[in-house]
Protein backbone atom coordinates (compact mmCIF):
# COMPACT_ATOMS: atom_id res chain seq x y z
CA UNK A 1 0.00 0.00 0.00
CA UNK A 2 1.13 3.56 -0.71
CA UNK A 3 -0.82 5.34 2.05
CA UNK A 4 -1.85 8.99 2.08
CA UNK A 5 -2.75 10.85 5.25
CA UNK A 6 -4.71 13.96 6.08
CA UNK A 7 -3.07 16.81 7.96
CA UNK A 8 -5.17 15.95 11.01
CA UNK A 9 -3.89 12.38 10.93
CA UNK A 10 -0.25 13.52 10.61
CA UNK A 11 -0.75 15.91 13.52
CA UNK A 12 -2.16 13.10 15.63
CA UNK A 13 0.81 10.83 14.85
CA UNK A 14 3.22 13.69 15.57
CA UNK A 15 1.63 14.29 19.00
CA UNK A 16 1.67 10.63 19.99
CA UNK A 17 5.30 10.22 19.00
CA UNK A 18 6.54 13.55 20.32
CA UNK A 19 5.28 12.58 23.78
CA UNK A 20 7.69 9.62 23.79
CA UNK A 21 10.78 11.60 22.69
CA UNK A 22 13.04 14.42 23.86
CA UNK A 23 11.68 17.87 22.89
CA UNK A 24 12.83 18.79 19.40
CA UNK A 25 13.81 15.22 18.48
CA UNK A 26 11.37 14.97 15.56
CA UNK A 27 12.44 18.34 14.17
CA UNK A 28 16.06 17.21 14.39
CA UNK A 29 15.20 14.07 12.47
CA UNK A 30 13.37 16.14 9.86
CA UNK A 31 16.36 18.47 9.58
CA UNK A 32 18.72 15.53 9.19
CA UNK A 33 16.50 13.91 6.54
CA UNK A 34 16.35 17.24 4.69
CA UNK A 35 20.13 17.66 4.84
CA UNK A 36 20.63 14.12 3.54
CA UNK A 37 18.22 14.87 0.71
CA UNK A 38 20.13 18.04 -0.18
CA UNK A 39 23.48 16.24 -0.12
CA UNK A 40 22.12 13.57 -2.46
CA UNK A 41 20.82 16.22 -4.89
CA UNK A 42 24.14 18.07 -4.81
CA UNK A 43 26.23 14.97 -5.50
CA UNK A 44 28.55 15.66 -8.43
CA UNK A 45 27.48 19.30 -8.81
CA UNK A 46 30.11 22.04 -9.10
CA UNK A 47 27.75 24.64 -7.63
CA UNK A 48 27.81 23.95 -3.86
CA UNK A 49 25.58 26.77 -2.64
CA UNK A 50 22.26 26.11 -0.97
CA UNK A 51 19.69 28.70 0.01
CA UNK A 52 17.26 27.67 2.74
CA UNK A 53 14.06 29.61 3.38
CA UNK A 54 12.82 29.38 6.95
CA UNK A 55 9.34 30.51 7.94
CA UNK A 56 7.96 31.36 11.37
CA UNK A 57 6.71 27.92 12.38
CA UNK A 58 8.11 24.44 12.76
CA UNK A 59 8.54 24.05 9.01
CA UNK A 60 11.04 26.89 9.37
CA UNK A 61 12.59 24.96 12.26
CA UNK A 62 13.14 22.00 9.94
CA UNK A 63 14.95 24.27 7.47
CA UNK A 64 17.13 25.77 10.22
CA UNK A 65 18.05 22.30 11.49
CA UNK A 66 18.88 21.28 7.92
CA UNK A 67 21.03 24.41 7.51
CA UNK A 68 22.99 23.64 10.68
CA UNK A 69 23.53 20.05 9.53
CA UNK A 70 24.66 21.08 6.06
CA UNK A 71 27.08 23.70 7.41
CA UNK A 72 28.57 21.07 9.72
CA UNK A 73 28.65 18.30 7.13
CA UNK A 74 32.15 19.08 5.89
CA UNK A 75 30.92 18.76 2.33
CA UNK A 76 32.10 22.21 1.22
CA UNK A 77 28.60 23.60 1.00
CA UNK A 78 27.96 27.33 1.17
CA UNK A 79 24.84 27.52 3.34
CA UNK A 80 22.66 30.62 3.37
CA UNK A 81 19.35 31.13 5.14
CA UNK A 82 16.58 33.68 4.76
CA UNK A 83 14.58 33.59 7.98
CA UNK A 84 11.15 35.19 7.83
CA UNK A 85 10.28 35.25 11.53
CA UNK A 86 6.62 35.85 12.36
CA UNK A 87 5.21 38.32 14.84
CA UNK A 88 4.55 35.55 17.37
CA UNK A 89 7.30 33.86 19.35
CA UNK A 90 8.86 30.85 17.61
CA UNK A 91 8.27 27.45 19.22
CA UNK A 92 10.98 26.23 21.61
CA UNK A 93 12.11 23.70 18.98
CA UNK A 94 12.39 26.31 16.24
CA UNK A 95 14.23 28.70 18.59
CA UNK A 96 16.66 25.89 19.39
CA UNK A 97 17.15 25.17 15.67
CA UNK A 98 17.81 28.87 15.06
CA UNK A 99 20.50 28.79 17.74
CA UNK A 100 22.11 25.74 16.11
CA UNK A 101 22.12 27.44 12.71
CA UNK A 102 23.83 30.52 14.21
CA UNK A 103 26.36 28.32 16.02
CA UNK A 104 27.13 26.50 12.76
CA UNK A 105 28.09 29.84 11.14
CA UNK A 106 25.31 29.69 8.59
CA UNK A 107 25.05 32.95 6.61
CA UNK A 108 21.80 34.82 7.19
CA UNK A 109 20.58 36.92 4.26
CA UNK A 110 17.87 39.58 4.06
CA UNK A 111 17.05 39.08 0.38
CA UNK A 112 17.50 36.65 -2.48
CA UNK A 113 21.12 36.41 -3.69
CA UNK A 114 22.11 37.68 -7.13
CA UNK A 115 23.33 34.36 -8.46
CA UNK A 116 21.47 31.06 -8.56
CA UNK A 117 22.21 28.57 -5.79
CA UNK A 118 22.36 24.89 -6.72
CA UNK A 119 19.19 24.40 -4.71
CA UNK A 120 16.57 26.34 -2.79
CA UNK A 121 15.11 24.55 0.22
CA UNK A 122 11.57 25.64 1.02
CA UNK A 123 10.89 25.68 4.75
CA UNK A 124 8.54 28.65 4.74
CA UNK A 125 5.27 26.88 5.53
CA UNK A 126 4.21 23.30 5.88
CA UNK A 127 1.01 21.78 7.20
CA UNK A 128 0.42 24.80 9.44
CA UNK A 129 -0.35 27.16 6.57
CA UNK A 130 -3.51 28.92 7.64
CA UNK A 131 -4.21 31.50 4.93
CA UNK A 132 -2.98 32.77 1.57
CA UNK A 133 0.65 33.83 1.41
CA UNK A 134 1.11 37.57 1.72
CA UNK A 135 3.77 40.15 2.56
CA UNK A 136 7.43 39.17 2.31
CA UNK A 137 6.69 35.45 1.87
CA UNK A 138 4.50 36.10 -1.13
CA UNK A 139 7.02 38.46 -2.71
CA UNK A 140 9.74 35.84 -2.28
CA UNK A 141 7.64 32.98 -3.65
CA UNK A 142 6.63 35.00 -6.70
CA UNK A 143 10.24 36.00 -7.33
CA UNK A 144 11.44 32.40 -7.02
CA UNK A 145 8.71 31.09 -9.29
CA UNK A 146 9.79 33.63 -11.89
CA UNK A 147 13.48 32.75 -11.47
CA UNK A 148 12.84 29.02 -11.83
CA UNK A 149 15.69 27.99 -9.50
CA UNK A 150 15.41 24.32 -8.47
CA UNK A 151 13.43 23.91 -5.26
CA UNK A 152 13.23 21.11 -2.70
CA UNK A 153 10.12 21.62 -0.57
CA UNK A 154 10.18 20.45 3.03
CA UNK A 155 7.02 18.54 3.92
CA UNK A 156 4.69 20.58 1.68
CA UNK A 157 5.45 23.30 -0.89
CA UNK A 158 4.63 26.64 0.72
CA UNK A 159 1.20 27.83 -0.30
CA UNK A 160 -0.27 24.41 -1.08
CA UNK A 161 -3.12 22.90 0.94
CA UNK A 162 -1.74 19.51 1.93
CA UNK A 163 -5.24 18.02 2.23
CA UNK A 164 -6.73 19.08 -1.08
CA UNK A 165 -3.98 20.07 -3.51
CA UNK A 166 -5.52 23.52 -3.86
CA UNK A 167 -3.38 26.64 -3.60
CA UNK A 168 -4.51 28.31 -0.41
CA UNK A 169 -6.39 31.45 -1.39
CA UNK A 170 -8.11 33.65 -2.08
CA UNK A 171 -5.74 34.76 -4.81
CA UNK A 172 -2.99 32.58 -3.37
CA UNK A 173 0.45 31.61 -4.63
CA UNK A 174 2.57 28.53 -3.97
CA UNK A 175 6.26 27.89 -4.46
CA UNK A 176 6.71 25.42 -7.32
CA UNK A 177 9.08 22.69 -6.25
CA UNK A 178 10.73 20.08 -8.42
CA UNK A 179 10.79 17.78 -5.41
CA UNK A 180 9.06 17.49 -2.08
CA UNK A 181 10.33 15.63 0.96
CA UNK A 182 7.20 14.81 2.98
CA UNK A 183 7.76 14.20 6.68
CA UNK A 184 6.15 11.43 8.73
CA UNK A 185 3.73 10.35 5.98
CA UNK A 186 2.66 11.12 2.43
CA UNK A 187 -0.05 13.76 2.05
CA UNK A 188 -3.15 13.71 -0.14
CA UNK A 189 -2.75 17.23 -1.52
CA UNK A 190 0.67 16.51 -3.05
CA UNK A 191 -0.93 14.23 -5.64
CA UNK A 192 -4.07 15.83 -7.06
CA UNK A 193 -5.34 19.12 -8.54
CA UNK A 194 -2.49 21.70 -8.35
CA UNK A 195 -0.48 19.37 -6.12
CA UNK A 196 1.22 17.38 -8.87
CA UNK A 197 2.55 20.54 -10.52
CA UNK A 198 3.54 22.32 -7.33
CA UNK A 199 5.08 19.39 -5.41
CA UNK A 200 6.92 17.61 -8.24
CA UNK A 201 8.53 14.27 -7.31
CA UNK A 202 7.46 13.28 -3.81
CA UNK A 203 9.60 11.32 -1.38
CA UNK A 204 8.63 10.40 2.17
CA UNK A 205 10.90 10.58 5.21
CA UNK A 206 9.08 8.69 7.95
CA UNK A 207 11.40 10.06 10.66
CA UNK A 208 11.83 6.54 12.04
CA UNK A 209 8.27 6.52 13.36
CA UNK A 210 6.99 3.02 13.94
CA UNK A 211 4.04 1.85 11.82
CA UNK A 212 1.84 1.21 14.85
CA UNK A 213 1.49 4.94 15.48
CA UNK A 214 -0.33 5.44 12.19
CA UNK A 215 -4.14 5.33 11.84
CA UNK A 216 -5.68 3.61 8.81
CA UNK A 217 -4.79 5.76 5.79
CA UNK A 218 -7.53 8.08 4.57
CA UNK A 219 -6.52 7.45 0.95
CA UNK A 220 -3.81 5.71 -1.05
CA UNK A 221 -1.97 6.01 -4.35
CA UNK A 222 -3.04 3.82 -7.23
CA UNK A 223 -0.67 1.06 -8.31
CA UNK A 224 -0.96 -2.17 -10.28
CA UNK A 225 -0.97 -4.17 -7.03
CA UNK A 226 -4.50 -2.88 -6.36
CA UNK A 227 -5.92 -4.74 -9.37
CA UNK A 228 -3.26 -7.41 -9.90
CA UNK A 229 -5.70 -10.16 -8.84
CA UNK A 230 -7.61 -9.52 -12.07
CA UNK A 231 -4.58 -9.78 -14.38
CA UNK A 232 -5.00 -13.31 -15.64
CA UNK A 233 -3.37 -14.94 -18.66
CA UNK A 234 -5.95 -16.25 -21.11
CA UNK A 235 -6.75 -19.94 -21.35
CA UNK A 236 -5.95 -21.55 -24.69
CA UNK A 237 -9.45 -22.91 -24.75
CA UNK A 238 -11.12 -19.51 -24.81
CA UNK A 239 -13.39 -17.87 -27.35
CA UNK A 240 -14.85 -14.42 -27.96
CA UNK A 241 -17.73 -15.18 -25.63
CA UNK A 242 -15.22 -15.65 -22.83
CA UNK A 243 -14.37 -11.96 -22.76
CA UNK A 244 -17.74 -10.32 -22.80
CA UNK A 245 -19.77 -7.97 -24.96
CA UNK A 246 -19.53 -4.21 -24.61
CA UNK A 247 -22.09 -1.95 -26.20
CA UNK A 248 -21.37 1.74 -26.49
CA UNK A 249 -24.59 3.72 -26.25
CA UNK A 250 -23.84 7.06 -27.87
CA UNK A 251 -22.93 8.61 -31.16
CA UNK A 252 -25.76 11.07 -31.72
CA UNK A 253 -25.69 13.12 -34.94
CA UNK A 254 -22.27 14.70 -35.44
CA UNK A 255 -20.77 12.90 -32.43
CA UNK A 256 -20.14 9.43 -33.82
CA UNK A 257 -16.40 9.90 -33.20
CA UNK A 258 -16.79 9.81 -29.43
CA UNK A 259 -18.59 6.45 -29.56
CA UNK A 260 -15.99 5.09 -32.01
CA UNK A 261 -13.13 6.05 -29.71
CA UNK A 262 -14.85 4.33 -26.81
CA UNK A 263 -15.50 1.25 -28.93
CA UNK A 264 -11.89 1.06 -30.13
CA UNK A 265 -10.62 1.41 -26.57
CA UNK A 266 -12.92 -1.42 -25.47
CA UNK A 267 -11.65 -3.60 -28.32
CA UNK A 268 -7.96 -2.88 -27.69
CA UNK A 269 -8.35 -3.59 -24.00
CA UNK A 270 -9.64 -7.05 -24.68
CA UNK A 271 -13.45 -7.20 -24.85
CA UNK A 272 -14.68 -10.18 -26.85
CA UNK A 273 -17.20 -8.27 -28.95
CA UNK A 274 -17.78 -4.53 -29.23
CA UNK A 275 -20.90 -2.85 -30.60
CA UNK A 276 -22.04 0.71 -30.99
CA UNK A 277 -25.72 1.18 -30.24
CA UNK A 278 -25.95 4.44 -32.13
CA UNK A 279 -28.50 7.15 -31.49
CA UNK A 280 -28.13 8.30 -35.06
CA UNK A 281 -28.15 5.92 -38.07
CA UNK A 282 -24.85 7.55 -39.15
CA UNK A 283 -22.07 5.26 -40.38
CA UNK A 284 -22.82 1.57 -40.71
CA UNK A 285 -19.26 0.54 -39.95
CA UNK A 286 -15.90 1.87 -38.82
CA UNK A 287 -13.58 1.58 -41.80
CA UNK A 288 -10.50 1.84 -39.57
CA UNK A 289 -11.81 -0.74 -37.12
CA UNK A 290 -14.22 -3.00 -38.99
CA UNK A 291 -14.44 -5.37 -36.00
CA UNK A 292 -16.87 -2.96 -34.39
CA UNK A 293 -20.53 -3.73 -35.02
CA UNK A 294 -23.27 -1.13 -35.31
CA UNK A 295 -26.85 -1.41 -34.07
CA UNK A 296 -29.82 0.91 -33.96
CA UNK A 297 -29.75 2.40 -30.47
CA UNK A 298 -33.52 2.93 -30.32
CA UNK A 299 -34.23 -0.81 -30.40
CA UNK A 300 -31.07 -2.12 -28.72
CA UNK A 301 -31.74 -4.30 -25.62
CA UNK A 302 -30.43 -2.36 -22.63
CA UNK A 303 -30.89 -4.86 -19.84
CA UNK A 304 -27.94 -7.23 -20.29
CA UNK A 305 -24.17 -7.31 -20.77
CA UNK A 306 -22.02 -4.23 -20.30
CA UNK A 307 -23.07 -0.83 -21.55
CA UNK A 308 -20.92 2.29 -21.79
CA UNK A 309 -23.48 5.08 -21.96
CA UNK A 310 -22.74 8.68 -22.75
CA UNK A 311 -19.94 9.22 -25.28
CA UNK A 312 -21.43 11.52 -27.90
CA UNK A 313 -24.90 10.60 -26.64
CA UNK A 314 -26.33 14.12 -26.66
CA UNK A 315 -29.29 15.25 -24.62
CA UNK A 316 -32.23 14.15 -26.78
CA UNK A 317 -35.48 12.61 -25.61
CA UNK A 318 -34.22 9.28 -26.97
CA UNK A 319 -31.02 9.54 -24.92
CA UNK A 320 -33.07 10.31 -21.82
CA UNK A 321 -35.43 7.40 -22.50
CA UNK A 322 -32.56 4.96 -23.03
CA UNK A 323 -31.02 5.97 -19.71
CA UNK A 324 -34.34 5.63 -17.92
CA UNK A 325 -34.64 2.09 -19.32
CA UNK A 326 -31.03 1.04 -18.71
CA UNK A 327 -30.61 2.30 -15.17
CA UNK A 328 -33.03 -0.13 -13.48
CA UNK A 329 -31.70 -3.05 -15.55
CA UNK A 330 -29.15 -5.75 -14.84
CA UNK A 331 -26.49 -4.56 -17.31
CA UNK A 332 -23.18 -3.44 -15.86
CA UNK A 333 -22.93 0.27 -16.63
CA UNK A 334 -20.22 2.81 -17.27
CA UNK A 335 -21.82 6.24 -17.30
CA UNK A 336 -19.85 9.07 -18.87
CA UNK A 337 -20.23 12.47 -20.48
CA UNK A 338 -23.79 13.23 -21.67
CA UNK A 339 -25.25 10.40 -19.60
CA UNK A 340 -23.90 12.11 -16.50
CA UNK A 341 -25.20 15.50 -17.58
CA UNK A 342 -28.68 14.07 -18.15
CA UNK A 343 -28.59 12.39 -14.75
CA UNK A 344 -27.37 15.63 -13.14
CA UNK A 345 -30.46 17.39 -14.53
CA UNK A 346 -33.07 14.75 -13.64
CA UNK A 347 -34.18 13.77 -10.14
CA UNK A 348 -35.93 10.74 -11.62
CA UNK A 349 -32.73 9.45 -13.26
CA UNK A 350 -30.83 10.13 -10.04
CA UNK A 351 -33.29 7.97 -8.11
CA UNK A 352 -32.95 5.18 -10.64
CA UNK A 353 -29.16 5.39 -10.47
CA UNK A 354 -29.08 5.32 -6.67
CA UNK A 355 -31.33 2.25 -6.60
CA UNK A 356 -29.12 0.15 -8.88
CA UNK A 357 -27.65 -3.13 -7.72
CA UNK A 358 -25.66 -4.12 -10.84
CA UNK A 359 -22.04 -2.89 -11.17
CA UNK A 360 -21.81 0.82 -11.99
CA UNK A 361 -18.89 3.11 -12.75
CA UNK A 362 -19.33 6.87 -13.14
CA UNK A 363 -16.51 8.77 -14.86
CA UNK A 364 -17.21 12.49 -14.41
CA UNK A 365 -14.76 15.27 -15.17
CA UNK A 366 -14.97 18.13 -12.67
CA UNK A 367 -17.84 19.93 -14.44
CA UNK A 368 -19.89 16.73 -14.77
CA UNK A 369 -19.17 16.02 -11.09
CA UNK A 370 -20.34 19.51 -10.22
CA UNK A 371 -23.63 18.93 -12.05
CA UNK A 372 -24.15 15.64 -10.21
CA UNK A 373 -23.59 17.36 -6.86
CA UNK A 374 -25.37 20.62 -7.67
CA UNK A 375 -22.28 22.70 -6.86
CA UNK A 376 -19.69 24.57 -8.95
CA UNK A 377 -16.71 22.90 -10.60
CA UNK A 378 -14.48 25.19 -8.52
CA UNK A 379 -16.00 23.68 -5.38
CA UNK A 380 -15.38 20.19 -6.76
CA UNK A 381 -11.75 21.02 -7.46
CA UNK A 382 -11.22 22.63 -4.06
CA UNK A 383 -11.73 19.22 -2.47
CA UNK A 384 -11.62 16.50 -5.10
CA UNK A 385 -11.58 13.65 -2.63
CA UNK A 386 -14.65 14.90 -0.82
CA UNK A 387 -16.47 15.39 -4.15
CA UNK A 388 -15.63 11.92 -5.44
CA UNK A 389 -16.68 10.34 -2.14
CA UNK A 390 -19.91 12.33 -2.06
CA UNK A 391 -20.89 11.13 -5.54
CA UNK A 392 -19.96 7.53 -4.72
CA UNK A 393 -22.05 7.60 -1.56
CA UNK A 394 -24.98 9.45 -3.03
CA UNK A 395 -25.30 7.21 -6.08
CA UNK A 396 -23.94 3.97 -4.66
CA UNK A 397 -21.42 3.62 -7.50
CA UNK A 398 -17.71 3.53 -8.18
CA UNK A 399 -16.60 7.02 -9.18
CA UNK A 400 -13.63 8.20 -11.21
CA UNK A 401 -13.26 11.96 -10.78
CA UNK A 402 -11.00 12.73 -13.72
CA UNK A 403 -8.23 15.30 -14.11
CA UNK A 404 -4.63 15.56 -12.95
CA UNK A 405 -4.50 13.08 -10.08
CA UNK A 406 -7.78 11.28 -10.87
CA UNK A 407 -9.63 10.19 -7.74
CA UNK A 408 -11.28 6.77 -7.60
CA UNK A 409 -13.85 6.43 -4.82
CA UNK A 410 -16.15 3.63 -3.72
CA UNK A 411 -19.21 3.99 -1.48
CA UNK A 412 -18.00 4.20 2.11
CA UNK A 413 -14.49 3.20 1.12
CA UNK A 414 -11.09 4.80 1.14
CA UNK A 415 -10.28 6.82 -1.96
CA UNK A 416 -7.41 6.14 -4.33
CA UNK A 417 -5.44 8.79 -6.24
CA UNK A 418 -3.93 7.94 -9.59
CA UNK A 419 -0.42 9.11 -10.44
CA UNK A 420 -0.06 8.04 -14.06
CA UNK A 421 -1.00 10.27 -16.99
CA UNK A 422 0.15 13.65 -18.23
CA UNK A 423 -1.17 16.78 -19.92
CA UNK A 424 -1.10 14.97 -23.26
CA UNK A 425 -4.46 13.63 -22.06
CA UNK A 426 -5.88 17.14 -21.90
CA UNK A 427 -7.54 16.93 -25.31
CA UNK A 428 -10.98 15.93 -26.51
CA UNK A 429 -11.74 12.23 -26.67
CA UNK A 430 -9.33 10.86 -24.08
CA UNK A 431 -12.18 10.51 -21.60
CA UNK A 432 -14.11 8.46 -24.17
CA UNK A 433 -11.12 6.12 -24.32
CA UNK A 434 -11.08 5.78 -20.54
CA UNK A 435 -14.79 4.89 -20.49
CA UNK A 436 -14.14 2.21 -23.12
CA UNK A 437 -11.39 0.61 -21.02
CA UNK A 438 -13.65 0.63 -17.96
CA UNK A 439 -16.42 -1.09 -19.92
CA UNK A 440 -14.07 -3.63 -21.42
CA UNK A 441 -12.62 -4.68 -18.06
CA UNK A 442 -16.13 -4.92 -16.59
CA UNK A 443 -17.20 -7.12 -19.52
CA UNK A 444 -14.19 -9.35 -18.86
CA UNK A 445 -15.47 -9.96 -15.36
CA UNK A 446 -13.46 -7.49 -13.32
CA UNK A 447 -15.32 -6.13 -10.27
CA UNK A 448 -16.24 -2.47 -10.73
CA UNK A 449 -13.68 -1.04 -8.30
CA UNK A 450 -10.78 -2.99 -9.79
CA UNK A 451 -12.00 -2.16 -13.30
CA UNK A 452 -11.94 1.56 -12.48
CA UNK A 453 -8.54 1.39 -10.76
CA UNK A 454 -7.07 -0.65 -13.60
CA UNK A 455 -8.58 1.45 -16.37
CA UNK A 456 -7.35 4.73 -14.92
CA UNK A 457 -3.85 3.37 -14.25
CA UNK A 458 -3.53 1.77 -17.69
CA UNK A 459 -4.96 4.83 -19.49
CA UNK A 460 -2.46 7.15 -17.77
CA UNK A 461 0.44 4.74 -18.23
CA UNK A 462 -0.38 4.42 -21.93
CA UNK A 463 -0.23 8.20 -22.27
CA UNK A 464 3.07 8.31 -20.34
CA UNK A 465 4.50 5.67 -22.64
CA UNK A 466 3.47 7.58 -25.76
CA UNK A 467 5.10 10.73 -24.39
CA UNK A 468 8.30 8.84 -23.61
CA UNK A 469 8.30 7.81 -27.29
CA UNK A 470 8.00 11.43 -28.38
CA UNK A 471 4.29 11.17 -29.15
CA UNK A 472 3.05 14.17 -27.17
CA UNK A 473 2.29 15.59 -24.77
CA UNK A 474 1.64 18.34 -27.32
CA UNK A 475 -0.62 16.95 -30.00
CA UNK A 476 -1.18 13.53 -28.47
CA UNK A 477 -4.48 12.31 -29.94
CA UNK A 478 -7.08 10.20 -28.17
CA UNK A 479 -7.10 7.83 -31.16
CA UNK A 480 -3.42 7.05 -30.50
CA UNK A 481 -4.15 5.73 -27.03
CA UNK A 482 -5.88 2.38 -27.68
CA UNK A 483 -2.79 0.65 -29.13
CA UNK A 484 -0.65 1.86 -26.25
CA UNK A 485 -3.36 0.66 -23.85
CA UNK A 486 -3.15 -2.79 -25.44
CA UNK A 487 0.64 -2.88 -24.97
CA UNK A 488 0.45 -1.82 -21.32
CA UNK A 489 -2.28 -4.35 -20.50
CA UNK A 490 -0.47 -7.24 -22.18
CA UNK A 491 2.72 -6.39 -20.36
CA UNK A 492 0.85 -6.30 -17.08
CA UNK A 493 -0.70 -9.70 -17.68
CA UNK A 494 2.24 -11.41 -19.33
CA UNK A 495 4.83 -10.04 -17.01
CA UNK A 496 7.20 -7.47 -18.41
CA UNK A 497 5.55 -4.27 -17.18
CA UNK A 498 6.82 -2.45 -14.14
CA UNK A 499 4.15 -2.80 -11.50
CA UNK A 500 4.64 0.82 -10.38
N1 LIG B 1 5.89 19.66 15.63
C1 LIG B 1 6.73 18.67 15.31
O1 LIG B 1 7.10 17.91 16.16
C2 LIG B 1 7.20 18.51 13.94
C3 LIG B 1 6.83 19.40 12.91
N2 LIG B 1 7.35 19.26 11.69
C4 LIG B 1 7.28 20.36 10.75
O2 LIG B 1 6.45 21.35 11.22
C5 LIG B 1 5.52 21.75 10.23
C6 LIG B 1 4.28 22.24 10.87
O3 LIG B 1 4.69 23.28 11.73
P1 LIG B 1 3.68 24.36 12.23
O4 LIG B 1 2.50 23.74 12.83
O5 LIG B 1 4.45 25.27 13.11
O6 LIG B 1 3.24 25.06 10.91
P2 LIG B 1 4.07 25.78 9.72
O7 LIG B 1 3.70 25.06 8.49
O8 LIG B 1 5.50 25.93 10.04
O9 LIG B 1 3.40 27.23 9.63
C7 LIG B 1 2.81 27.79 10.77
C8 LIG B 1 3.39 29.15 11.06
O10 LIG B 1 3.12 30.00 10.01
C9 LIG B 1 2.20 31.04 10.41
N3 LIG B 1 1.33 31.18 9.26
C10 LIG B 1 0.44 30.31 8.76
N4 LIG B 1 -0.03 30.71 7.57
C11 LIG B 1 0.60 31.89 7.30
C12 LIG B 1 0.57 32.79 6.24
N5 LIG B 1 -0.21 32.59 5.16
N6 LIG B 1 1.34 33.88 6.27
C13 LIG B 1 2.15 34.11 7.33
N7 LIG B 1 2.23 33.27 8.40
C14 LIG B 1 1.47 32.19 8.37
C15 LIG B 1 1.61 30.57 11.69
O11 LIG B 1 1.36 31.60 12.57
P3 LIG B 1 -0.01 32.40 12.65
O12 LIG B 1 0.33 33.72 12.06
O13 LIG B 1 -1.07 31.66 11.88
O14 LIG B 1 -0.29 32.47 14.12
C16 LIG B 1 2.76 29.75 12.25
O15 LIG B 1 3.73 30.57 12.85
C17 LIG B 1 5.34 20.54 9.38
O16 LIG B 1 4.89 20.86 8.08
C18 LIG B 1 6.75 19.97 9.40
O17 LIG B 1 7.54 20.61 8.42
C19 LIG B 1 8.39 18.29 11.47
O18 LIG B 1 9.56 18.92 11.92
C20 LIG B 1 8.17 17.06 12.25
C21 LIG B 1 8.08 17.36 13.71
N1 LIG C 1 -3.31 17.14 -17.10
C1 LIG C 1 -3.73 15.87 -17.03
N2 LIG C 1 -3.02 14.93 -16.38
C2 LIG C 1 -3.46 13.67 -16.31
N3 LIG C 1 -4.61 13.23 -16.86
C3 LIG C 1 -5.35 14.12 -17.52
C4 LIG C 1 -4.97 15.48 -17.64
N4 LIG C 1 -5.92 16.12 -18.35
C5 LIG C 1 -6.85 15.23 -18.67
N5 LIG C 1 -6.52 14.02 -18.17
C6 LIG C 1 -7.31 12.78 -18.33
O1 LIG C 1 -7.83 12.74 -19.66
C7 LIG C 1 -9.20 12.34 -19.65
C8 LIG C 1 -10.07 13.49 -20.17
O2 LIG C 1 -11.41 13.15 -20.08
P1 LIG C 1 -12.60 14.16 -20.45
O3 LIG C 1 -12.36 15.46 -19.76
O4 LIG C 1 -13.86 13.46 -20.18
O5 LIG C 1 -12.39 14.40 -21.99
P2 LIG C 1 -13.33 14.01 -23.22
O6 LIG C 1 -14.74 14.06 -22.76
O7 LIG C 1 -13.07 15.04 -24.27
O8 LIG C 1 -12.93 12.66 -23.68
C9 LIG C 1 -9.48 11.91 -18.23
O9 LIG C 1 -9.18 10.55 -18.07
C10 LIG C 1 -8.52 12.79 -17.44
O10 LIG C 1 -8.22 12.26 -16.16
K1 LIG D 1 7.56 24.00 2.89
Write the SSE topology.
Elements: E1 3-4, H1 7-18, H2 25-42, E2 49-54, H3 58-71, E3 78-83, H4 92-103, E4 107-108, E5 119-123, H5 135-147, E6 151-154, E7 179-183, H6 195-199, E8 201-205, E9 219-221, E10 245-250, H7 256-268, E11 273-278, E12 293-296, E13 306-309, H8 317-326, E14 332-335, H9 337-344, H10 347-354, E15 360-362, H11 366-373, H12 377-382, H13 384-395, E16 398-401, E17 407-409, E18 415-417, H14 430-443, H15 448-468, H16 481-494
Parallel strand pairs: 2-3, 2-5, 3-4, 5-6, 6-7, 7-8, 9-18, 10-11, 10-13, 11-12, 13-14, 14-15, 15-16
Antiparallel strand pairs: 1-9, 16-17, 17-18
Helix pairs in contact: 2-3, 3-4, 7-14, 7-16, 9-11, 11-13, 14-15, 15-16
Bound molecules: ligand NPW, adenosine-5'-diphosphate and potassium ion.
Which value, in Å, is the CA radius of gyration?
25 Å
Low-confidence residue ranges: none
The total strand number stands at 18
- CATH homology superfamily name of the largest domain: Ribokinase
- How would you characterize the largest beta sheet? 11 strands, mixed
Terminal CA distance reads 11 Å
Please state the structural category: alpha/beta
| Number of domain units | 2
Bound molecules: ligand NPW, adenosine-5'-diphosphate, potassium ion
Indicate the mean pLDDT: 96
- Major sheet: order of its strands? 1-9-18-17-16-15-14-13-10-11-12
Helix count, DSSP H or I runs of 4 or more residues:
16
CATH topology of the largest domain: UDP-N-acetylmuramoyl-L-alanine:D-glutamate ligase
Query: In percent terms, what proportion of residues is strand?
Result: 15-25%
Helix amount: 25-40%
Task: Quickly give the CATH architecture of the largest domain.
Answer: 3-Layer(aba) Sandwich
Form type:
elongated
Q: Briefly, what CATH class of the largest domain?
A: Alpha Beta
Subunit structure: Homotetramer.
Keywords: ATP-binding, Isomerase, Lyase, Metal-binding, Multifunctional enzyme, NAD, NADP, Nucleotide-binding, Potassium
Pfam families: Carb_kinase, YjeF_N
Binding site for AMP: 402-406, 431
